[in-house]
């Protein structure tokens, strides 16, 4: 979450309220009801890059760059997360949980 509150803190409560629905929850700006205020070029690049990375990683998500995610402990345990783990790894976990077929 950005310190300038450009992301409403209610996202955290919304994710928590749906915690029993999936192993990984992503608050996406690219789903019905989602939104993001950004210049047109940035929005276009975001869409393109998300599709390229999702396809390259084999992850069935529209919004890999969302910073709002909630992971079940079992997902983190499955991937042996330790201090110093690369921050790019969580993006690939989204499609490699047992329910996602990974």
How is this fold's topology laid out?
Layout: H1 10-17, E1 24-26, H2 40-57, E2 69-71, H3 73-78, H4 89-93
Antiparallel strand pairs: 1-2
Describe the model.
The chain is mostly helical. It has one domain (10-100). Helices cover 36% and strands 6% of the residues. The chain contains four helices and two strands; from the N terminus they run αβαβαα. A two-stranded antiparallel sheet has the order 1-2. The protein starts with 9 loop residues before the first helix and ends in a 9-residue tail after the last helix.
Quick overview of this protein structure:
The chain has 102 residues and is mainly α.
The string of secondary-structure elements, in order, is HEHEHH
Low-pLDDT parts are 96-102
Number of domain modules: 1
Helix coverage percent: 25-40%
Radius of gyration: 14 Å
Structural class, by secondary structure, is mainly alpha
Cross-sheet strand order for the largest sheet: 1-2
List the total number of helices. Answer: 4
- What is the approximate shape? globular
Mean pLDDT: 75
According to DSSP, the number of beta strands is 2
Measured distance between first and last alpha carbons: 28 Å
Largest sheet: 2 strands, antiparallel
Strand content: 5-15%
């Amino acid at each position: 979450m950005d310190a300038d509150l450009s992301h409403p803190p209610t996202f955290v409560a919304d994710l928590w309220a749906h915690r029993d629905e999936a192993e990984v929850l992503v608050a996406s700006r690219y789903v019905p009801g989602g939104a993001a205020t950004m210049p047109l070029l940035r929005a276009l690049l975001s869409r393109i890059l998300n599709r390229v990375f999702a396809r390259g990683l084999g992850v069935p998500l529209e919004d890999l760059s969302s910073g709002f995610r909630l992971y079940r402990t079992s997902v983190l345990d499955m991937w042996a997360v330790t201090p110093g783990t690369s921050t790019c790894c969580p993006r690939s976990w989204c499609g490699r949980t047992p329910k996602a077929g990974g």
